Amino acid sequence: MEFLLLLIAFICGFACKLVSLPPLIGYLVAGFILNAMGFSSNPAISTIADLGITVMLFTIGLKLNLKDLIKPEIWFASVAHSAVWILCCVGLLFLLALIPLAHFTELSFMQLALIGFAFSFSSTVCVVKLLEESGEIRTRHGKIAIGILIMQDIFAVLFLVFATGKVPSIYALALFALIPLAPLLKKLLSEAGHGELLPLSGLVFALGGYQLFELVGVKGDLGALVFGILLAGTSKSSELAKSLLSFKDLFLIGFFLSIGLTALPDLEMTLIALLLTLLIPLKFMMFFALFTQLRLRARTSYLASLILSNYSEFGLIVAAVAVSVGMISEQWLVIIAMSVSFSFVLTSILYKQSHNQYILIKEPLKKFQKPRALAEDVYPSFNNVDVLVIGMGRVGKGAFSALSKDIGSAVCGMDADQDKINRLNKDGYNAIVGDGENIDLWENLDISNIKLVLLALPSIEDSSNITCQLRSAKFNGKVAAIARYEDEVQPLLDSGVDQVFNFFTDAGLGFAEESLAILGRGQPTQADKQA
């Protein structure tokens, strides 16, 4: 039985990947297929699903900056969107109740509001997955989306506490003692090394936080998130998040399967789910209006609104609790599950081409943009720069250091992560904040004197997109990029990159030539330094 579950999940996930959809949609379909075959959820699948959510929230906490949550574009947008959405949903669902569909006719005002509340959440799983796959989780719009999700998660936890009547124990006040214990937890993490003990320590922290909060009557998922936040901001937090990535992805398969195994929908439920999916553009417009009114730039507002335009697994959790206490019927849990699934498909398809979509419609969107941008959204500038290194990770920093030895301040680094750039500037790096896929950035940045742009990015899709943006902005210099695999070289060249360095092959060549240089038998070439 276990093998059949894995086999069908693999087949459906692989089929989605072949048509350029995220595999998670395939796992949802696999759950419905297994349901139709007579399978039902079991404790093992539920446990794996819970592990996936717990580890995911822990990794979100590792990347979270609490200062971001107190910004108006996060807390106000979250509260205002939820309130307006619920009011609109109540009105729209009331109108839909006029249609002679059995599941609408007997809904009370309270039930309408509860269903609207369940649909107010955006999917943490879907959003984080798409942002990670596109390498945009630390971009401006990525951080905005994550902040909104965290606020929504807090709303969900508060609902679960009040709906279940589960009052935290008086001992929950002792959880505040975790704050002064944070340095000790970070010390333990730093001593975990880089091997198998690192992901094991992450699982211990995540599950330990879950169990600790449960012991004092607080939702365990919140404990995993808090422990991640306590460990955030260290040099090891990013490495820990990467080491847990495979575990998280594997566990989340169980979560998506469990959604499909909840119940098998009929034709009427499917029709209602499709009707509710048609409300997603309204969610997008609400987010976009709020973001632009809060002085975010049109592009940031568009991308953040687009990726948040879906329904959430937390809506399912809210619905499941509501069913357990008799507030709504079981059929609505199935309807919400299908709507969540449809919304995942819609977001995955639309966001994949989001940057190209923005280029086509940016002028109409900019009409909603406020004249005065927020301080974080002011475009950077530089002078007397010959070489621009985009992506200041390990490879980018290495290339920057090698180039700066030869041309000094004529090299500049750029990265979309504001926190990373702040750290680099403190260390003496000449670096600016910028999202290379932002066509507005290139149109407002003077790149006429730049001779070379070096793309030190792990994703060839990002490198290709940035190259296209540069060429659209009339950049006439050279573009160099890195590739991890041989089959990535030609697509980069086809996108307009002038020179591609194979990460592993050229790294070995550079290592050999540097070694020979020690013996006085050769000197490393400039190309190797740039790689």
* Tally of helical runs: 27
Mean pLDDT: 83
Number of domains: 2
What ranges have pLDDT less than 50 throughout 5 or more consecutive residues?
A: 521-531
Q: Strand order, main sheet: write it out.
A: 3-2-1-4-5-6
Q: Which word captures the global form?
A: globular
- The portion of residues forming beta strands comes to under 5%
Give the end-to-end Cα distance, rounded to a whole number of Å: 49 Å
**Total beta strand runs:** 6
The CATH topology of the largest domain corresponds to Na+/H+ antiporter like fold
Structural class: mainly alpha
* CATH class category of the largest domain: Mainly Alpha
Largest sheet: 6 strands, parallel
The CATH architecture of the largest domain would be Up-down Bundle
Summed up, what is this model?
The chain is mainly alpha-helical. It contains 27 helices and 6 strands. Helix 5 packs across helix 7 and helix 7 runs antiparallel to helix 18 (313-324).
Please specify the SSE layout and strand pairing.
Blueprint: H1 2-18, H2 23-36, H3 43-62, H4 66-69, H5 72-96, H6 102-105, H7 109-119, H8 124-133, H9 140-164, H10 178-190, H11 197-215, H12 220-231, H13 235-243, H14 245-260, H15 267-277, H16 280-293, H17 298-307, H18 313-324, H19 330-352, H20 354-366, E1 387-390, H21 394-407, E2 411-415, H22 418-426, E3 431-433, H23 439-444, E4 452-455, H24 460-472, E5 478-483, H25 489-494, E6 499-502, H26 503-518, H27 526-530
Parallel strand pairs: 1-2, 1-4, 2-3, 4-5, 5-6
